[in-house]
């Protein structure tokens, strides 16, 4: 055990903090994957005390990469135990079959990520997702002080200077685009929170926020984002920069279902806007190809396939213009030499 560096472990429910202590005795353990089987208990932290240690062995772990699969409460307490300045990667996966009062534990997701950001602002990868769907109207306890947003959540987000992957998918999370500072190392950004849950009076990002993303995240290569008011774009497309931003994949998830597939006249302004922002886009559809379950999903996929054709035509025209310019330059250069 003393030489063990990587461990995958499945634990029977319910899991208590005491059940995790033995993992601190493995001196070289740096990569840990935990899963829970069975029905866990819905145990909330005290209001405003999600950063407070509850055990002497808490946060003494040397684990730098933690993957936790289970209900939100299991993910919360596991992260709370192993969270330390050494933890640079957290991957949380909430399975589809989480039901009952455990589902409302999803409101702890902001607290889970806040813990890691607070204890290690040099975190490199933060990812948390849920595979399930809400069965209908949910009586979410937004008035519960135990699940109210951490007071310094946004300031913690702005300190993520080393983050390379930030992925929030199908879980409750506030709008953070406007709060993110310049992140020079960020390569993958996935911001697709549950569209049916909005914190306070917040509004979702729009296409106009893509210009902010271009300016703040120069290394970004993969972006999946929930946007409202699609296909509306700002009236004047931004100026193209040279050599242009290097984003290669962009998946725009409409905040509300499209009523019909978008027409060419609706897609042209959107394609022009995106081409000016991200001239090297190569994929705007693959995210949606495995998610066609409703007619609205089909309309979205068809719309983005048509968008892809427009983007490719713009790129081809630009490429041909560059080649023509090079050809003319060579011709004129040869003529002057003669």
Automatic annotation (TrEMBL):
Name the Gene3D superfamilies on file. Answer: Ribonuclease Inhibitor (3.80.10.10)
What is the superkingdom listed in this entry's lineage?
Eukaryota
**SUPFAM superfamilies with a match to the protein in the record:** RNI-like (SSF52047)
User: What is this protein's record name?
Assistant: Uncharacterized protein
């Amino acid at each position: 055990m003393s030489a063990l560096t990587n461990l995958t472990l499945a634990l029977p429910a319910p899991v208590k903090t005491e059940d995790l202590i033995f993992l601190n005795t493995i001196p070289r353990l740096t990569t840990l994957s935990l899963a829970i089987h069975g029905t866990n208990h819905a145990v909330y932290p005290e209001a405003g005390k999600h950063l407070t240690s509850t055990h002497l062995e808490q946060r003494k772990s040397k684990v730098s990469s933690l993957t936790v699969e289970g209900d939100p409460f299991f993910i919360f307490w596991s992260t709370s135990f192993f969270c330390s300045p050494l933890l640079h990667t957290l991957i949380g996966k909430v399975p589809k079959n989480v039901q009952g009062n455990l589902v409302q534990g999803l409101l702890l997701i902001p607290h889970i990520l806040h813990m890691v950001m607070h204890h290690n602002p040099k975190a490199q990868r933060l990812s948390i997702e849920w595979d399930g769907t809400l069965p209908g109207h949910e009586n979410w306890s937004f008035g519960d002080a135990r699940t109210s947003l951490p007071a310094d959540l946004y300031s913690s987000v702005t300190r993520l200077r080393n983050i390379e992957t930030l992925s929030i998918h199908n879980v409750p999370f506030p709008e953070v685009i406007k709060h993110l500072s310049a992140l020079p190392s960020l390569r993958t950004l996935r911001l697709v929170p549950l569209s049916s849950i909005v914190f306070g009076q917040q509004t979702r990002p729009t296409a106009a926020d893509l210009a902010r993303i271009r300016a703040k995240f120069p290394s970004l290569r993969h972006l999946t984002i929930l946007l409202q008011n699609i296909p509306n774009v700002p009236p004047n497309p931004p100026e193209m920069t040279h050599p242009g931003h290097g984003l290669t994949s962009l998946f725009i998830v409409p905040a509300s279902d499209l009523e019909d597939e978008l027409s060419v006249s609706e897609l042209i302004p959107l394609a022009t806007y995106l081409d000016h922002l991200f001239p090297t886009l190569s994929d705007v559809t693959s995210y949606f190809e495995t998610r066609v379950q409703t007619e609205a999903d089909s309309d979205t996929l068809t719309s983005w396939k048509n968008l892809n054709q427009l983007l490719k035509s713009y790129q081809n025209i630009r490429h041909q213009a560059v080649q023509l310019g090079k050809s003319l330059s060579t011709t004129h250069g040869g003529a002057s030499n003669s």
